[in-house]
Design brief:
The structure is a homotetramer. By secondary structure, the first copy, chain A, is mainly alpha-helical. Chain A has helices spanning 2-37, 44-51, 55-62, 65-90, 95-106, 114-125, 127-158, 166-186, 193-207, 214-227. The first copy, chain A, is elongated. Chain A starts with a helix and ends in an 8-residue tail after the last helix. Chain C binds chain D through residues 34-41, 118, 121-130, 133, 162, 168, 171-172, 174-180, 182-183, 185-186, 190-191, 199, 202-203, 206-207, 214, and chain D through 34-41, 118, 121-130, 162, 168, 171-172, 174-180, 182-183, 185-186, 190-191, 199, 202-203, 206-207, 214. Chain D binds a DNA duplex through residues 11-16, 19, 22, 43-45, 53-57, 59-61, 63-65.
DNA sequence: CATGAATGAGTCTTCATTCAT
DNA sequence: AATGAATGAAGACTCATTCAT
C-alpha cells in the first residue's frame, strides 16, 4: 500500500515536472535563437538544436511554432511582472520610491539585457509577430501603465508649475524607457543597462524636480547598486 | 536633391532616368510590403506585384534581395536627411530654434508615420536585418547625433544647476524620440504624430526649463502647425 | 457480454480474455476512425484516442499499423461470414431460398452500413491497402462466390431461354451488390440499406423470372422484415 | 512544311510548352501516381518525378495539392462527358439505342480501364477525398443520371408486367456499372472491359426483355467491336 | 531590357515506431 | 502490461534566384 502510494505519487510528479522543465528549456532555446538569428531566422530546427532535443519534440510540446512564440512572450511578460512585484515589495509606501522601484524593475539585469531587448523588438518589429504580441502581452502592458498613473498623480500634487496630465506623463515615461531599451539593443557598447537606469532616474528628476533632488538621487544610486550585480538567472 | 531636376530635364540620360524611376518604384513597393506584411512576409513576388513589374526585373536592378533592402534603408536615411536639412534651413541661427527644428524634422509627416516606423523597426527588430542597418545607416545616425551635441552645449551654458554631459543628453533625447516612434507604431491610435512632436518639445522644456518657457512653446506650436498638414510625399 | 462478469472473476483465462477484448476494442476504434477520417486520416494516435488506450498498447497488440489494418479486414470478413452462415442456417434447403438468404446476409444491418461500406471502400480505393485486402480477404470472397455458383446452376436448370453461364451470372450478381454498397456509401440518403436489399431481390427476379415471382417476393419481404430491426452490433 | 513542324516542336523545348500542356502533363502524372501508389501514396514528389518536373513547378501551376486533385477529377469528368457525347452523337434517335450508347460510353476504353477505375475509387474510398469528389463531380454525375431517366421511361412504356419506377431503375443501372468497375479494379484479370460492356447489355436485356432481344444484342455486339480496339490515348 | 517559368534548398508539421519508466 | 515522451524520416508548401525566350 505504501509502496503503491510511492509509485503513484512519484511517477506523475516526475513526469509533470519533466514536462514543465522541457517546455521551459524549449522556450529558453527559442529566446536564444531569436537573439542570435532574429525572428525570421528562428527555425524549429535551430531551436531544437539549441535545446538539444529532436524537432518532433518541440511540436509535441507546443503544437505550433506560433504557440511556441506566444509562450516565449508570455514567459517574458511573467518574468517582468515578477521582477516588478519584487522591486515594489522592497520599496516603502511612497509614490516617489515606488516610481524609482518601477525604473529599477524595468532595468533589472534579469529583465533588461541586449538578448531580452532583441526578443521584444523582434516581436514589435515584424508586422505579423506584432499580432501575437498584441494578443498575448498588451493587457499586461496596459495594466502596468495604469499602475503608474496614481503614483504620478501623487507627485504632481506636490509640484508647482502648470497642471500636467498624469496619463500623458506616464505614456512619455514608458516611451522613454522603450527608447532606452532600443538603444541597448542597437548600441550595446554605448548603452549599458546601469547607465540607462540612471538616465531614467534623471528623467524622473527633470519631470519632478522638487521631489527628486540630488540627495535622494544619490541615495537611490546606492540603493540600486545593491541590485546591480548582474546575476544571470541560472538554468 | 535639386540636382534631380537637372537629370529629369536632360534628354540624353533618358535611359538612366527610367532606371532611377524603376529602382525608386521597387524601393517604394518594398516599403509598402514591409509595412503590410512585415520583413519576413516581404517576398520578391509581393514586392514586384505591388510595383507592377516582373520578378526578373527586380533582380536585374538589385542583384539580390539583401541589396534591395539596403537600398530601402538608404532611401529612408536620405529622405530623413533631406527633411532635416530643410527644417534647419528654415530655422534661425539659434541653438534652441535649431533643436526645435530637429524635433520638427524627426516628426515631419514625410518622415514619421506608422508605415515608416514599421520599416525602421523591422530592420531594428531582426537580427540579420540589423546587420544591414548597421552597415548602411549607422554613419548617418552618428552624424546627426553629433550635430546635436554643440546645440545642447550652447543651451547648457545658459542653464543653472549641476553640470550635465551634452553627449549624454543627446543620447537621451534620441532615445526618447525612438521611444515615441515605437509607440506610434504599436499604438497608432493613442500616439498621433503631432502629439508626439509636442511631447518631444515638452521634453526639451523639462531638459532646458530656462530656455523653453511657456511662451516660446506656444510660438513653436504655431510654427509647427504650418508643417503639420499631412502631405503624403508622392512619388 | 454478460460473460464479462464471469471473466473478471475467473483467474485462468483472465489475461487471455482481456487481451482479446483489448484487441477488439482497438479494431473497432480503427473502424470508427476509418469511417470518420478516411484511411489516410486514420493515425495510431486517433485510433488509440477513440479506443481510450495508449499508443504504446496498440503497438504492443498489433506489431505495427499494417497488421492492425489486416486485423480490421479479417474482423469484417469473419463477421460477414458469420452473418452469412446465420442466414443460411435459417433458410430451407432450396436454391432460390438460399440465394435470397445470401442477399439478406449481404444487406444485413450488422454487415451493411455506411460505416462498414466506408471501410471496405477505403481498402479497395487505396492501391497499397488493396494489397492488404488481397492478402486477407480474397480467399473468403472467392469461397463465397463459389458457394453461389451451384445455387445458380440449379435455378438455371429451371429456366427457359438461351443457356447462360452460372459463374458469369454469379460475378454479375456480386458486382451488382458491390455497386449498391458503393451507392450506400456515396449517397446514404438516397440508398437505404433495406431498399437496396429489395433492389437486389428485384435483380434476382429479373435474372430468374420464372423462379422469383411476385408471390415469393412478398413472402421474402416479410421474411426479411424480421431481420431488419437495425441492431447496431455494439460492444 | 515538315521542316516547319520540326522547328516549332524543337525550338520551344520544354519551356515554351503552353501552360495548358504543362497542367495536363501534371494531371496525367497525378493520375499515374494515384493508380500506382494510391491516393495517400501520391506525394507531390512522386507526381513531379513522373511528370519529369521539379516539385516547385507543381505548386506553381496548382497552388495546392487539393487543387491538383480537383483538377484530376475535373479532367476525368470532362473526358467521360466528351466520350458520352461522342457515343450519343453516333447513336440513332431511339431510347434503346441511346441506352446502349450510354453503356458503350461507360465502358469505352478511353474512359474505363483499371487505371481510371483506380482513380475514381481512390476518391470514393477516402472520407476526405470524398468531399473533393462531391464538390467537383457530383453535379455532372447527377446530370448524367437524369439524362437516363427519360430513356428508361420510354422503354418502360413498351414493356408488359407490373409498373416500375424509371428513376429507381436508373439508380440500379448506375449501381451495376459501378459494381462492374469495382471488379475491373479488383480483379482486372477476371473482369475485362469488353466483357463488362456485354454484361451491362445483358443487364439491359433482363431489364427490358421485350426491347433487347438476342438479335439486337448481336448487332450491338458487332457495333461495339468497332470501338473496342484499346486505343490508349497518347500523350 | 523584360518576362515569368523553372528550380530546389529550406521550413513547418505529421506520424509510425521505439523505449525508458 | 501499460504509458506516453522522444525520435526522425517524410510530406506539403515557400521563395530567392536563375535563365531561356
Amino acid at each position: 500500500m505504501t509502496q503503491d502510494d510511492t509509485i503513484t505519487t512519484k511517477a506523475p510528479t516526475r513526469r509533470t515536472q519533466a514536462k514543465v522543465e522541457r517546455r521551459l528549456a524549449l522556450i529558453e532555446a527559442t529566446m536564444e535563437a531569436i537573439a542570435l538569428y532574429g525572428l525570421s531566422g528562428t527555425t524549429m530546427a535551430r531551436v531544437t538544436e539549441i535545446a538539444g532535443t529532436s524537432i518532433g519534440l518541440a511540436n509535441f510540446y507546443f503544437e505550433n511554432k506560433e504557440l511556441l512564440l506566444e509562450a516565449v512572450l508570455q514567459h517574458l511578460a511573467d518574468q517582468e511582472q515578477a521582477v516588478l512585484q519584487e522591486h515594489l515589495a522592497q520599496a516603502i509606501d511612497d509614490p516617489g520610491e515606488r516610481l524609482i522601484a518601477l525604473v529599477d524593475a524595468r532595468f533589472d539585469p534579469r529583465v533588461c539585457a541586449p538578448k531580452t531587448a532583441a526578443i521584444w523588438f523582434a516581436f514589435w518589429g515584424d508586422a505579423s509577430a506584432r499580432l501575437i504580441y498584441r494578443r498575448v502581452v498588451q493587457r499586461t502592458d496596459d495594466a502596468r501603465l495604469e499602475a503608474v498613473v496614481p503614483l504620478i498623480k501623487s507627485l504632481l500634487a506636490e509640484q508647482d508649475g502648470p497642471p500636467r496630465d498624469a496619463y500623458d506623463i506616464a505614456l512619455g515615461m514608458e516611451a522613454f524607457y522603450d527608447g532606452l531599451w532600443l538603444n541597448i539593443l542597437l548600441y550595446p557598447d554605448d548603452f549599458q543597462r546601469a547607465d540607462c537606469r540612471n538616465r531614467a532616474v534623471d528623467h524622473l528628476t527633470s519631470l519632478f524636480p522638487q521631489r527628486f533632488n540630488t540627495l535622494s538621487l544619490a541615495a537611490n544610486g546606492a540603493n540600486q547598486a545593491a541590485c546591480s550585480k548582474d546575476m544571470t538567472h541560472g538554468p
